Amino acid sequence: MTHTAGSHLTTWALVGGVLTWAAQWLLVSSGQPSLVPPLTWGVALGLMGSVLLALAWPIRAQVRAERSGPRVDPIFATRVVLLAKAGALAGALFAGAGAGFLVFFSTRPVLSPVALWLSGLALIGALVLMVAALVAERWCTLPPQEPEHDPAGVPGGEVL
């Protein structure tokens, strides 16, 4: 498995931002009230990031201890790394949505400070989730092992 690429995160963030801004514009254009992200959105995303770090901590501890101590269940480690990858992509999508809310509300003729603060909090919570997920993903990675070479320069291993 490869680490989450920055291009994927950027793509998800752009999709989230454009879709959120477009949905807000369509709502206001049709005479409906615009949506404002709730306070719990940013808080919940930030808490999910901290839970993800707490799940990845035992794996990091074992990887750094070079296999001494109790072994971490490989199924658990796989689930945590997949959750971290999903959290990074979801964090990027929600960060884009938070940025879309901020752009939409900051370009209105009458600014709503509450909507701007809640949009900023949603953006910060999503960024916390994304960064925590990327850190957790790195924590669940084994360090590269040096391949053993014979003196002739031919890599070792099984030959079929």
List the helices and strands and how they pair.
Layout: H1 6-29, H2 39-64, H3 74-106, H4 113-139
Helix pairs in contact: 1-3, 2-3, 2-4, 3-4
Which characteristics define this entry?
single chain; 160 residues
Radius of gyration: 21 Å
Beta strand count: 0
Low-confidence stretches: 156-160
Main beta sheet: strand number and arrangement? none
Shape: elongated
Percentage of β-strand residues: under 5%
The number of domains is: 1
Annotation field: number of helices: 4
Helix content percent band: 55-70%
If you had to describe this structure to a student in words, what would you say it looks like?
The structure is a single chain. This protein is mainly alpha-helical and 160 residues long. The chain has one domain (6-139). The protein is 69% helix and 0% strand. The protein is built from four helices and no strands. It has helices at residues 6-29, 39-64, 74-106, 113-139. Residues 156-160 have low confidence and may be disordered.
